[in-house]
Design brief:
A six-stranded antiparallel sheet has the order 4-5-6-9-8-7. The protein contains seven helices and ten strands. Helix 1 crosses helix 3. With 244 residues, the protein is of the alpha+beta class. Helices cover 26% and strands 34% of the residues. It has two domains: 67 residues, Winged helix-like DNA-binding domain superfamily/Winged helix DNA-binding domain (Arc Repressor Mutant, subunit A), CATH 1.10.10; 153 residues, Chorismate lyase (3-Layer(aba) Sandwich).
């Protein structure tokens, strides 16, 4: 199964959110600072107030700002912070570099998980999984190799999905709410399969991001994302701790 897509650029909502987060987390807007009104932000970004309102609501839920009636939204003190790697859509990663995104499914099968995969996904016994390998491109050049397992007990609708129009990552984000995620990051030399798909020499530097997500206590997916060295930048989002 193969497929290529050309998606819309990063959403305006995400751009406004990122800009405000950066102002707060770098200290440019200190605690107590009154952020620009929704009307002013809408004018600045040439968008509707509804778009800005959704951004401010999201910031309030994250504990970055407090909405005060008749006053506006003010920056909250950030007592302690922890780094959380965002779950980004690879197509958006490519778009931010102003390159054209596409992807291709290299392999896709429905099968029973082996013993190691059963342990990895935290299954009580061997269950059916979707095993998907796809290659993401930037301007037609390999950008990232994705090797993913989806727990079909948690996401039964994935069994009938071909992923030929939308790659597994954004498809899962659209269909399955997740409550926890774990990342493991490794820098090493490319193995044979990775080197072959990414078009690099065996042993060339690669960055590997292994990610697993859960919905409550149920594992949803485990994925390995392999990037040629130098092609990917890790981004951390900082959110306030609830600890006092």
């Amino acid at each position: 199964m193969t497929g290529g897509v050309s998606e819309a650029p990063v959403s305006l909502h995400q751009r406004i959110l990122s800009d405000i987060e950066q102002n707060i987390l770098t200290g440019r807007w200190p605690p107590g600072y009154k952020i620009p009104s929704e009307q002013l932000l809408a004018q600045q970004y040439e968008c509707s107030r509804m778009t800005v309102n959704k951004v401010v609501t999201q910031l309030a839920r994250a504990g970055l700002v407090q909405r005060r009636r008749k006053i506006g939204s003010v920056v909250l003190p950030q007592k302690a912070q922890s780094a959380i790697l965002e779950i980004y859509d690879i197509r958006e990663e490519v778009k931010t570099t102003e390159r054209t995104y596409s992807y291709r499914i290299l392999a896709h099968s429905i099968r029973q998980a082996n013993q190691a995969e059963t342990r990895q996904l935290g299954l009580i016994r061997k269950k059916a999984v979707a095993d998907i390998t796809c290659l993401h491109f930037a301007d037609g050049k390999p950008f990232c190799l994705e090797q993913r397992l989806i727990n079909l007990e948690a996401v039964p609708e994935a069994e009938a999905e071909s992923f030929d129009k939308l790659s597994p990552g954004p498809w899962l984000l659209d269909h399955v709410p997740w409550s926890a995620a774990e990342h493991r990051i490794d820098a090493r030399g490319a193995e044979e399969v990775e080197a072959s798909h990414l078009g690099i020499a065996l042993g060339s530097p690669v960055m590997v991001v292994e990610r697993q997500t859960w919905r409550l206590e149920q594992s949803v997916t485990a994925v390995r994302l392999t990037y040629p060295g130098g092609s990917h930048t890790l981004t951390a989002r900082f959110t306030p701790s609830q600890a006092t």
